[in-house]
Design brief:
Blueprint: H1 39-54, H2 59-69, H3 81-96
Cofactor: [4Fe-4S] cluster
Protein name: Transcriptional regulator WhiB
Family: Belongs to the WhiB family.
Length: 97
């Protein structure tokens, strides 16, 4: 679950970047795997979602949002849940050094 306390406030500037997302023209199911999806189907869907992200003008902002709010599901900013968790672990490890 997203950590609600980490969400930005209701200020429009905090959210308007989403209006420019390439994902707005795509089916949202592309970015969130259905329960039980595994193997090749999972990999193919992630790859297709990342292709949309690759051409997105707000990809970096999207990824920053997903990391800051600890989005637990879906492809955000071209990264899967697992990839974002790894990024956060590395970030914590680097800070503790």
């Amino acid at each position: 679950m997203t950590v609600i306390s980490r969400l930005p406030g209701a200020v429009e500037e905090e959210w308007d970047w989403q209006l420019q997302g390439a994902c707005r023209a795509a089916d949202s199911r592309l970015f969130f795997h259905p329960s039980g999806e595994r193997g090749q189907a999972h990999d193919d869907r992630d790859r297709a979602a990342k292709a949309v992200c690759a051409r997105c003008p707000v990809r970096e902002r999207c990824l920053r949002h997903a990391l800051a709010t600890r989005e637990r599901y879906g492809v955000w900013g071209g990264r899967t849940e697992e990839e974002r968790q790894l990024m956060l672990r590395r970030r914590r490890r680097n800070r503790s050094r």
